[in-house]
Amino acid sequence: MSRISHSDVEVGTQIPEQTFPVRRLDLVRYAGASGDFNPIHWNERFAKSVGLPNVIAHGMFTMAEAGRVVTDWTGDPGSVVDYSVRFSAPVVVPDDDEGAEITVAGKVKAKHEDGTVTVLLTARSGGAKVLAKASAIVRLPQ
Amino acid sequence: MAINPDYLGREYPAPEAYEVTRGKIREFAEAINDLNPAYLDKASAKALGYADVIAPPTFPVILGMAGSALALADPDLGVDFSRVVHGDQSFRYSRPLRAGDVLSTVTRITDIKVLGGNELITMETVAEAADGEHVVTAGMMLVVRGS
């Protein structure tokens, strides 16, 4: 896997956009792996009973996909020193074979003298901005 | 039901340390559909300078969820879990988690407030290695939606 270095990037460097599928099966699998069995993520009857439009993806599933754009770009997932997001809208996942999609892009917002850079991320699904204030600080080799 | 403000600052140490295993890292990586070799293959992780496979950046949510569950299970805290959605999440790393880590964690309630008919509760989970080294701090804010 190729790795980028601190000198390769500038403020404004774009991070390649990626689109990720989210199906009901992904949510069931994620529930099991993460231990988050909140029924809003797999039970349509329950989700609607608490006022949601349908089953919604775990925010943490979306955060994981968005983070992957950064770690694929750096080539070293251990390069992440800080990663934070706000969940601004739910990813609604219909009960069909296609499910939903999450599209993530990013760009370098700041370059720091300690060898790190700050990346700002955007994530959209079904026309909605599903993450806000999403940013990662990654340490890059010199 | 309202969140009890007396719980601000309360701490919940995990009853036992969390052991990070290769199998659990693989399960989590597969669940997020991210088969990065650093998560799955020791030789690839070593090539990046790690002693063993490392965990994806959002893996420690497992520790945060377990910690928040300890708090939310307390009926006197007053959180209606059926109305909870995740508001925000952060991770601050000293280093990545790796297979073989045995992490002790403490979760603390750092903020409780009411905003626009919703209640917000913020918790922070600090994970340390067996030798006391700080590994990661995970912060989560949960929104208890008003009915």
TrEMBL record, chain A:
Family according to the record: Belongs to the enoyl-CoA hydratase/isomerase family.
Record Pfam families: MaoC_dehydratas
Annotated ranges, domain MaoC-like: 17-122
Name of the protein: MaoC family dehydratase
Coiled-coil residue windows: none
Taxonomic superkingdom: Bacteria
Organism: Nocardiopsis exhalans
From TrEMBL, chain B:
Coiled coil: none
Gene3D superfamilies: Hotdog Thioesterase
Domain FAS1-like dehydratase, residue spans: 8-137
Organism: Nocardiopsis exhalans
PANTHER family from the UniProt entry: HYDROXYACYL-THIOESTER DEHYDRATASE TYPE 2, MITOCHONDRIAL, HYDROXYACYL-THIOESTER DEHYDRATASE TYPE 2, MITOCHONDRIAL-RELATED
InterPro entries per UniProt: FAS1-like_DH_region, HadA-like, HotDog_dom_sf, UPF0336/Enoyl-CoA_hydratase
Family membership: Belongs to the UPF0336 family.
Lineage of the species this protein comes from: Bacteria, Bacillati, Actinomycetota, Actinomycetes, Streptosporangiales
Protein name: UPF0336 protein NE857_05120
